[in-house]
Amino acid sequence: MTRRRPRGNTGHRGCFDNAAVRGLRTEWIGFNLIPMNGNAYGRPPQYPNSLLTQVGPGTPCGELMRRYWQPVGLSRQLTDLPQKVRVLGEELVLFRDRSGRPGLLYPRCMHRGTSLFYGRVEGAGLRCCYHGWLFDVEGQCLDQPCEPDGGRHRDSVRQPWYPVQERYGFVFAYLGPPQKMPVLPRYDNLESLAPGETLWCSLGGFGSTGDDSLAVVPYSWLHMNDNVMDPFHVQVLHSTFSVVQFVPQFALMPKVDFFYADHGVCYSAIRKLDDGQEVDRISSWLMPNIMSVPDVTLRAGHSAGIAWVVPVDDSHYVQAMVSKIPAGVTFRGMLLNGKTWGEMTEAEHQRTPGDYEAQAGQGPISLHSEEHLVTSDRGIMMQRRLLLQQLEVVAKGGDPVGVVFDADKALVKVRSGNFYRAAQAAG
Amino acid sequence: MTRRRPRGNTGHRGCFDNAAVRGLRTEWIGFNLIPMNGNAYGRPPQYPNSLLTQVGPGTPCGELMRRYWQPVGLSRQLTDLPQKVRVLGEELVLFRDRSGRPGLLYPRCMHRGTSLFYGRVEGAGLRCCYHGWLFDVEGQCLDQPCEPDGGRHRDSVRQPWYPVQERYGFVFAYLGPPQKMPVLPRYDNLESLAPGETLWCSLGGFGSTGDDSLAVVPYSWLHMNDNVMDPFHVQVLHSTFSVVQFVPQFALMPKVDFFYADHGVCYSAIRKLDDGQEVDRISSWLMPNIMSVPDVTLRAGHSAGIAWVVPVDDSHYVQAMVSKIPAGVTFRGMLLNGKTWGEMTEAEHQRTPGDYEAQAGQGPISLHSEEHLVTSDRGIMMQRRLLLQQLEVVAKGGDPVGVVFDADKALVKVRSGNFYRAAQAAG
Amino acid sequence: MTRRRPRGNTGHRGCFDNAAVRGLRTEWIGFNLIPMNGNAYGRPPQYPNSLLTQVGPGTPCGELMRRYWQPVGLSRQLTDLPQKVRVLGEELVLFRDRSGRPGLLYPRCMHRGTSLFYGRVEGAGLRCCYHGWLFDVEGQCLDQPCEPDGGRHRDSVRQPWYPVQERYGFVFAYLGPPQKMPVLPRYDNLESLAPGETLWCSLGGFGSTGDDSLAVVPYSWLHMNDNVMDPFHVQVLHSTFSVVQFVPQFALMPKVDFFYADHGVCYSAIRKLDDGQEVDRISSWLMPNIMSVPDVTLRAGHSAGIAWVVPVDDSHYVQAMVSKIPAGVTFRGMLLNGKTWGEMTEAEHQRTPGDYEAQAGQGPISLHSEEHLVTSDRGIMMQRRLLLQQLEVVAKGGDPVGVVFDADKALVKVRSGNFYRAAQAAG
């Protein structure tokens, strides 16, 4: 396995040195002085790392996110009615014209501000309900029916719009500067479906709760992003804290290595099983909010899925998940004590907490200044370090890692998976 | 028909010239520079025209509104319990003492701040529940039962109050400076009821939704005010966009003229009908928030009604509507596909949007800086221009148009209506 | 009865002179100039007395409150699940470890911020669900299972915690500076239970609504605190305004005296009864938020109860009430017209307002600048004066009245009660 370093285009390289990162205690990860007896009185105010949590237009992380295509809708749900989309702090309207083209527009009609959510989908675009201005998927105004000649100056105005593309069951949007628009990547593990195989797609809170209770998850995208390079919580939260949420083997504390690879960070978590085998579970995180988690039942082989943690705003996200599933398989959610997450009471959530409780428990936005990161948090430190470095690359006009402008180079090789082999001697 | 110019008392006249207004593009109606391809990235922040949307005490528009009597309650509902009133950003309590006099008081008892909403209506006024201070409709303190001699100094305090009058089924209040209090106007089309005729009154969201779902409408008064001098949306929103909401004849695009008249703005919208007749639909808007819309079934004759768009606060309003109705007629709301507005789902509202969707779609307060007003918006430009000019009149100490201090001159002639005649040759 | 003056430790004495306080009109009790006719137009903005209503860390009143033990939970409810506590503007987690010790911790796990509300109660403490860090009731970190050797540096971190003690059915917490921690007081009227006697405990809104509808009361603690030294509202609100809420004798207007005593303020309210007797109802308020109200049925004898008005934040509080009840007695709430408070409609609350309506009617936080305090408000003036004086004592580093560091002096004698005697001649 190559320990390849991802690389920004402006030449910042030092931070990719794994050894240097291992002992990282950057200034923004505050270690507070604790009074002798730890009494809570008089503790200083704490604060989030806003560089990583603010995602609106013009914020460093928001601009970083805007350099990548982000999934904003499910293709199968985009039929004859416009949809409200909130992404990276922006309100937008997503629609598909009757000729089949998806479009993503600023929702307030440029004429007098009425929401195009109440617009009518037509062959050529979306028509505002109030005075009938008609816009195509690139915001061009095609008709102003209350004006002489359908609007003699209609070409001089344009409804703000964003480019979109469809792939893997999602509508992807590019919200960044037009001259920086990259190619929409392909992922090798989602290509070349076998006969009968289909793609299962979800957009919402499934990855957090294991069911479809939440259309939007009410906390920062960074909580879920941190969670990806955190193999240790699997042993505690999902395996030994209350009930076995995935498989009993996760109760084994793994031997973990973190490394930069695949435009992001990977971990290798090795567990020695009872049968003399060991399983090397490799999980991938790709810049800036993409993950490929191996099968949670420890099924052998490469991961069949990819997911994006798409910020809705600073304190909300949706997760876009897609995975190959074999013919005849139905993907269903998780049950704890026979109940879906949405069916459980708060006391039951207290007794059997999962990812949602652990992450929502960090608050709408965590207070990073009071964290105490330790050796088991090294993956998270590496992710954040890479994000911080790359948002600086973007702020300086460069192109962040993973962004590709040549369609021939836009196939991403995803290495995550559960790999079995004979157990090695302890090293 | 006279093209009379309304006139402020401080001599600002230039803005009333119709020709000058026709091509109006004032600075506050911003036309933004749009990037070459209209991409939504990097668009600048937008903002409301606060001069017209802020209505609280001391704001320019709030002070303009305060120079006119405003309807704040329905007479028939003011019985033995006090009512909460929120108007122009102020919280008040409306009540009727047992001798029949209506009163409008600041709600926090001047003694210790308890809400007079929980007060008891008595013959002489309203008694606070906490310590029994009794106030009359002009805020005079008549009793302090826990004090020696019922309060030896009770004359030195006074509960803040506003003058009220009842007419046409409403309680009107004057919230302006006492020395500027005008006469409560009469409207010729609400006077002299024929035998059996009654006044139908409504206070709430009926004018926006066509039913009684909303006690308060959750967006700026200006959205509905703009809507009044907008005859073109009738052709789109109400007639050709989804279903015919009023009558099929509104699907004809009218020939429209706007002109200043009757202390405000009027439009004349002429439609040539199939039977060789034409109908001239004249609608009136009077300063600052009063309208008289003709019958929406295009019944011939003068309009029988008047309505006020009363700001609750910057982002809410109630509409006070009153109309003569003949004996035996029951006024009922609008049905779309057999449902009232309140019974429809959001998807149904998307399919058959009406005034509520068009206006709520503009947001709680619209962002006027991004509007692109065109020739069909001339009536709205004239309204806003007049409002802006008149709030300056008020700010300079003058009296705005339509305000009358002589009871003999307080009868307003309302010219709106549907007027039929033989079609004229095209001009 | 001694007219003993409570005394701060820094020597401020002048304000305790009853005569001086009687005519008090301090600057912060604003008497506004009222326009000639009291018209509400143009009245100036009003504001709370923030010195008494702000209770967060570092605020003057917050620091005063933090010098006393405050009840934060019911012992009987603290079983196997952690509880969320919000007190004095702080979010905390209360739990009881399996060895029986109660603990109160800052809720965000010091590792990565996950809420300990989702933690697991163990023998030695509370374990975080995310990565299993284990803390004892004093915040010491006992285990970090994902770290080598269970965390080689776990002694260098400590979860912020507060001291707690249990008494009278409550968990009391001390949120102040550790070096200033006083002894948790005892109250003579809660000690020495007779055979069969028990303590009835409540934490929530019972004292405001007379039922268990509200877990938290949504207005400032000061509203309820003011209410305690206000014997006059009993005659109006509870007796003559609508229905008799307690007993008919309260409809007699009492002769009232206020005096400083028992580390706070007392009133004596004397009513001459029809049978030739008079009853002297003595009620006690102790610094800073403690009261002992006599039996509301006017049963003779000392009060059997104590209550704390514990600020949740600036605009919410809970009341902790405890009272001795004889064997076989069931404490039940108040019914008005056969309904509990929670069963009544808003119109019914208007017709029969009680403490909740009178106090909630003052708003989330009252606007003290517009109050007009009169002779019957003298008790409230004395309370506020004492609070203001004592928060200055604290701000200057002194110890406020009622705080005791010697366990032998920590028994508080509570003098409140209903005392009957032959009526005296009018004086």
Describe the structure.
The structure is a homotrimer of 427-residue chains. Chain A has 427 residues and is an alpha+beta fold. Helices cover 15% and strands 25% of the residues of chain A. The first copy, chain A, has helices at residues 18-22, 50-53, 60-65, 206-209, 221-228, 232-240, 346-351, 355-360, 378-395, and strands at residues 70-74, 83-87, 90-96, 102-105, 120-121, 126-127, 134-135, 141-143, 161-162, 164-167, 170-173, 186-187, 198-204, 255-261, 264-272, 277-286, 290-292, 301-302, 305-313, 316-325, 411-412, 417-422. In chain A, strands 13, 14, 15, 16, 17, 18, 19, 20 and 22 form a 9-stranded antiparallel beta sheet that branches. In chain A, β19 and β20 (316-325) form a beta hairpin. In chain A, α5 packs across α9. Chain A binds chain B through residues 57, 66, 81-82, 90, 92, 105-106, 108, 110-115, 117-118, 120, 127, 129-132, 138-140, 144-148, 151, 153, 157-163, 175-178, and chain B through 34-35, 37-43, 226, 232-233, 235-237, 240-242, 253, 347, 349-351, 353, 357-363, 366-368, 370-377.
Itemize the secondary structure elements and their pairings.
3 copies of one chain form a homotrimer.
Chain A: H1 18-22, H2 50-53, H3 60-65, E1 70-74, E2 83-87, E3 90-96, E4 102-105, E5 120-121, E6 126-127, E7 134-135, E8 141-143, E9 161-162, E10 164-167, E11 170-173, E12 186-187, E13 198-204, H4 206-209, H5 221-228, H6 232-240, E14 255-261, E15 264-272, E16 277-286, E17 290-292, E18 301-302, E19 305-313, E20 316-325, H7 346-351, H8 355-360, H9 378-395, E21 411-412, E22 417-422
Parallel strand pairs in A: 12-21
Antiparallel strand pairs in A: 1-11, 2-3, 3-4, 4-9, 5-6, 6-7, 7-8, 10-11, 13-20, 14-15, 15-16, 16-17, 16-22, 17-19, 18-22, 19-20
